[in-house]
Design a protein that fits this description.
By secondary structure, the chain is an alpha+beta fold. It contains four helices and six strands, in the order H-E-E-E-E-H-E-E-H-H. The model has no long low-confidence stretch (mean pLDDT about 95).
Length: about 130
């Protein structure tokens, strides 16, 4: 079982902060949130997700549900304790890359971050049907 926090902070330029209080850890890239966990909900990580992918994942895995306190269209809760590491990492990477692609500007900064992610071997792989 991987250490989720260690994986998150290993992502290029990931910032860990607690803007909602000391009971919640938020993970950001260039000031944009891509993951969040509440310490009173161990093993649960909220991640950003493409809306169609979010629905497919919820339909396919009981350990993936709509995110608590987040936009249900764009955020999923993943129970990392019930998913295999490969799947959890895939969805964390999807969230990270989605935020870079959709929420980071200007374009030059977005391209720099995508290049750093590629150099680190981070991919946004497709969700298997």
């Amino acid at each position: 079982m991987m250490d989720v926090r260690d994986y998150l902070v290993s992502l290029p330029l990931c910032e860990e902060c607690q803007p909602f209080g000391e009971e919640i850890a938020v993970y950001k890239i260039e000031g944009k949130m891509f993951a969040c966990t509440a310490f009173d909900r161990p093993g649960i990580l909220a991640v950003k997700c493409n809306p169609d992918r979010a629905i497919l994942l919820r339909d396919s895995y009981s350990a993936i549900t709509t995110a608590w306190h987040f936009n249900k269209k764009h955020w999923n809760d993943i129970n990392v304790d019930l998913l295999d590491d490969e799947l959890a990492i895939r969805e964390i990477c999807h969230s990270y890359m989605t935020v870079i692609k959709k929420n980071v500007s200007p374009k030059a900064l977005r391209e720099k971050l995508l290049s750093l992610a590629a150099q680190a071997g981070i991919e946004d792989t497709e969700c298997p049907e």
